[in-house]
Design a protein that fits this description.
By secondary structure, this protein is mainly β. The protein has no helices and 11 strands.
Length: about 110
């Protein structure tokens, strides 16, 4: 079992920056992929960005050029710049270990206009 603990959410004005962090509870395994998803009430959870163990990254078109994902062995970070009100959501950390997907509890990001 893997637990993911997120931190770094909060309230920021449009144009501002936030950095999200996520740490996995265990390091004695290979995390194939880590990343971030986000969700608003009544909507499906959507991809924000992921990064593989080899360093390959994937971003949603809506965040390209503004967000940067990075990782260490069992940690993943999301640097969010030039934030927009439409980036407001609960952000969830994600990890893929073998055949299993794990999720964090979520951290709220609110961008005011």
């Amino acid at each position: 079992q893997v637990q993911l603990v997120e931190s770094g959410g909060g309230l920021v004005q449009a144009g501002g920056s936030l950095r999200l962090s996520c740490a996995a509870s265990r390091r004695d395994f290979t995390i194939n992929r880590m990343g971030w998803y986000r969700q608003n009430p009544g909507k499906e959870r959507e991809l924000v960005a992921t990064v593989t163990s080899g360093g390959s990254t994937n971003y949603a078109d809506s965040v390209k050029g503004r967000f940067t994902i990075s990782r260490e062995t069992a940690k993943v970070y999301l640097q969010m710049n030039s934030l927009k009100p439409e980036d407001t959501a609960v952000y969830y950390c994600y990890a893929r270990v073998g055949w299993f997907d794990y999720w964090g509890q979520g951290t709220q990001v609110t961008v005011s206009s």
